[in-house]
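Researcher: Re-running this chain for the archive, since the previous output was lost when a drive failed. Same request as before.
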Amino acid sequence: MRLRMPQGGPWVTLRDHLLDRIPLPSSTIDAMLGAGEFVAADGSPVPADSPFVPRSVVWVHRQLPDEPPVPFELPILYRDERIVVVDKPHFLATMPRGRHLRETVLARARVQLGLPRLAAAHRLDRLTAGVLLLTTEQRWRGPYQQLFACGQARKVYLATAPVRPDLELPTTVRVHLAKPHGQLQAAVVPGRPPNSQTRVELVAADPQTGLGRYRLTPTTGRTHQLRAHLAWLGIPLFGDPLYPDVRSVSADDFSSPLGLVAARLAFRDPIDGEERDFTSSRLPAPWQVGAQF
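Model: Regenerated structure tokens:
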């Protein structure tokens, strides 16, 4: 783990800063310094009495928490010198963060493909499956990330949710979504200008279960946008543990995948101008028949 020092502060020694920055007991920090676990860029141990140097960098091995292995493969849909496209399974986070570190698309794909500089051009929720675009080197990251930042990537999702006979479809949801830091759910804020938009179409229905398969076409990419939009319409996604109500699910429970798949991703390649179009082989639970786009 790379620790870059801030440009300034009240600290006299590196130890002072580490005590404020790292949520570990002072005895643990002192033991790590004494054992030479904090090192400089050349790998040499940083002495315990080192002064605090603004904007300097030290490295330390992070103790990783235990993670239940996600028992699903990570298929590669496409690979060239600039990009890798994967068909992400449910329950696998896109990138290391929080308690999900090893069991992430990036950690797995870097090892699987031998590409240590692999990075995500965009992100899918851990519970969402489907097409995910990665870049092979830092020099390609910016152009492909801009596709998503500027709304130039065309995305289609398939979803499973209840059918409401009184809901007139197709419809386009345009609302203001807010997700304050630390809050699990995104919420619709009435009276504020819309900052999210999704086209919602019902493409198939099962009268026996009351469930429908929906095609969702977002033109914005707010956090939890599709999940929050469907919950706001009164048709929450099948298997959603957050909407409309938060319910606890064990970290090793993979029995109820979310009914949401990033089914298609299309864009004009920002480097060579080629039209790219990728499709997931997955379907939102509990459907078991082929999808039609």
